[in-house]
Design goal:
The chain is of the alpha/beta class. The protein is built from 13 helices and 19 strands. The chain binds 5'-deoxyadenosine (5AD) and iron/sulfur cluster.
C-alpha cells in the first residue's frame, strides 16, 4: 500500500466496540433504556459525523430522542466556520445548565470543530462547568472510550489535542433518512484559504479507500437510498494520498457504475482543482446529477489572491465556460464572502459583476467573520460595518432576482424529480428535488416518498418551484 496518510488500526476500532458493549451491558440493567440527544450545527460533514455518533450511541444501548429535555446523554456537534455559529452554540450550551440542575446524572458532550479550537476548549473548561466531555473531530472514533471515562471517573474529560488526523473505518452508523445519504470520501483540507478555520480544526487531507467507499454506496443502493452525496472539504483532492493514481472523477465513475436507480452528488469542489475530466464524467454518467457547487468567494483577482484561492477571476470564468460547454443545463451553485479584510467597494463591484455574468442557480452569501489563528484575522480591515452590510444587501438582492429568473425558466417544463420527504404544508404535502437539486413543492400520495416521478413545473418563488404530478 502506498498510502501516505494514517489509518486507525482495526484493533483500536474493535476496542471501541468493546467499550460500546460494556456501556450497553451497564445500560441494560437500568429501568428503561436511557436516552440520547444529538444536536448538529454546520455543514453536511457534521451531519455525517452525527450519524456516526448516533450509531455509536445506539450500539451503547441509548434510545435517540429529539429533545435535550431529560435526555441522559446530550451531544452538541458544533461548527466553527463563523463567529455567529459559535455564539449560537455557546448560548444554547449555556442554557443546558438548567436541565442538568433538574437531572444531575445527565452527561453533556460537546464535539465538532469548535472543540478543536484551543481558546474555545479553554472557555468551556473555565466557564461551562456543566459540560462533561469535550472532544474534537480527531477523537470522534474514540467517543465510546471517552464516554466510558466520564462514567468511571465521574469527572470532566477533554480530548482536544491537535492532529493531522487519520482515517477510521468500521464504526457503526445510524442514518437519519431513508432516501438521502451522505458518504464521506475524504476528510480535512490542505488549502489554507486565509479566512478559513477548517484546515486548523479538521487536519490534513486524507482519503478513504475507493473499494470501501464503493461498497458503502452499493449497500446504500441495496437498502433503497436514492440520493447519495459524496462529501469532502475539497473532493477534487480525493486520492492524492493513496498513491494509486486514482482521482475523484475515477471514483465518481466507479460509483456511477453500481447498478440501480439512484443519483450521485458531491460537494465541495475547489475551482482550482475542478478539471475537464470531472466535467466529462459528469456529462457521461447519467447517475451523476447535473449539479456542481463551485465556491468562487470573490470576483476580484486581488482579493482572491489575498484569500489564497490560487485562481483568478478569469480562470474561474473560464472553468464555468468549459463546464457549460460540456453540460449545458448544469445547475451551478456557489459560495461568496463579502467584506474580506481590505476589500474595497470597487473590488466588491467585481463580485457583483461576476454573479451577473455567471448567473448562479443559487448562492450562499457570507459576511466575512474573523477566525482566531487564521492569517486574514491579522489583516487590516478598515471598512466600516455599515458599508459591508450595504454591499452584502446589494449582493443578496442581485442574486435573488437571478434565482427568481432562473426558477421562472422552469415553468412549463417537465422534470424527473425524486420525492424526498413530506412537508408541513397541506396544500403541497410533498417535497421533491429536480436532478439539479432544486426544491419542488407538490401535492401527492406520501407513498411516493423515495420514488422518481415526472413533475410539471407550474409556478415558482425565489427559493423553490411548485409542480404537479404527471
Ligand atoms: N467568514 C465568512 N465566511 C466564511 N466561509 C468560510 N470561512 C469564512 C469566514 N471566516 C464560507 C466560505 C466557504 C463556506 C463554507 O463558508 O464561503 O465556502
Ligand atoms: Fe476552507 Fe478553503 Fe479548505 Fe474550503 S478549501 S475548507 S474554504 S481552507
Amino acid at each position: 500500500m502506498n498510502r501516505t496518510t494514517p489509518v486507525i488500526p482495526q484493533e483500536d476500532i474493535q476496542r471501541q466496540r468493546e467499550y460500546c458493549a460494556e456501556i450497553r451491558a451497564y445500560n441494560s440493567q437500568l429501568a428503561g433504556a436511557p436516552t440520547a440527544y444529538v444536536d448538529t450545527y454546520g455543514c453536511q460533514q457534521n451531519e455525517a459525523d452525527s450519524e456516526l455518533i448516533r450509531g455509536m450511541l445506539t450500539e451503547m444501548g441509548y434510545e435517540m430522542t429529539d429533545t435535550d429535555k431529560d435526555a441522559d446523554v446530550i451531544v452538541i456537534n458544533t461548527c466553527a466556520i463563523r463567529e455567529h455559529a459559535e455564539q449560537r452554540v455557546l448560548g444554547n450550551v449555556g442554557a443546558l445548565v438548567h436541565g442538568k440542575r433538574r437531572k444531575p446524572s445527565q452527561i453533556i458532550c460537546l464535539c465538532g470543530c469548535m472543540a478543536q479550537e484551543a481558546h474555545v476548549a479553554e472557555k468551556l473548561r473555565k466557564s461551562y462547568r456543566h459540560v462533561d466531555l469535550v472532544f474534537g473531530p480527531h477523537a470522534l472514533w474514540k467517543f465510546p472510550e471517552l464516554l466510558r471515562r466520564v462514567y468511571l471517573r465521574r469527572g470532566r474529560v477533554f480530548e482536544t489535542e491537535n492532529s493531522d488526523g487519520a482515517i477510521a473505518e468500521g464504526l457503526p452508523v445510524r442514518r437519519s433518512g431513508k432516501v438521502k445519504a451522505w458518504v464521506s470520501i475524504m476528510y480535512g483540507c490542505n488549502n489554507f484559504c486565509t479566512y478559513c478555520i477548517v484546515p486548523y480544526v479538521r487536519g490534513r487531507e486524507r482519503s478513504r479507500e475507493p473499494e470501501v467507499i464503493v461498497e458503502e454506496i452499493r449497500q446504500l443502493v441495496a437498502e433503497g437510498y436514492k440520493d447519495i452525496t459524496l462529501l469532502g472539504q475539497n473532493v477534487n483532492s480525493y486520492g492524492k494520498d493513496l498513491g494509486e493514481g486514482l482521482e475523484f472523477p475515477d471514483l465518481l465513475e466507479r460509483a456511477a457504475a453500481i447498478p440501480g436507480e439512484f443519483l450521485l452528488r458531491f460537494m465541495t469542489s475547489h475551482p482550482k482543482d475542478a478539471t475537464e475530466k470531472l466535467f466529462d464524467v459528469m456529462a457521461r454518467c447519467e447517475k451523476v446529477a447535473p449539479v456542481i457547487h463551485l465556491p468562487f468567494q470573490s470576483g476580484n483577482t486581488r482579493v482572491l489572491q489575498a484569500m489564497n484561492r490560487r485562481y483568478t477571476r478569469e480562470q474561474y470564468l473560464d472553468k464555468v465556460r468549459v463546464l457549460r460547454e460540456r453540460i449545458p443545463d448544469v445547475v451551478l451553485t456557489s459560495d461568496v464572502i463579502v467584506g474580506f479584510p481590505g476589500e474595497t467597494t470597487q473590488e466588491f463591484e467585481d463580485t457583483l459583476s461576476l454573479i451577473e455574468e455567471v448567473r448562479f442557480d443559487a448562492l450562499f452569501t457570507f459576511l466575512y467573520s474573523p477566525r482566531k489563528g487564521t492569517p486574514a484575522a491579522e489583516m487590516p480591515d478598515p471598512m466600516p460595518k455599515e458599508e459591508k452590510s450595504a454591499n452584502f444587501n446589494r449582493l443578496v438582492e442581485t442574486q435573488n432576482l437571478i434565482s427568481l429568473e432562473k426558477h421562472q425558466a422552469y415553468i412549463g417544463t417537465v422534470q424527473r424529480c425524486l420525492v424526498d420527504g413530506e412537508s408541513e404544508d397541506p396544500r403541497n404535502n410533498l417535497n421533491a428535488r429536480t436532478p439539479g437539486g432544486r426544491l419542488v413543492h407538490l401535492k401527492g400520495d406520501p407513498a411516493l416518498v423515495g420514488r422518481f416521478v415526472d413533475v410539471k413545473i407550474v409556478d415558482c418563488s425565489t427559493w423553490a418551484l411548485f409542480g404537479e404530478l404527471l
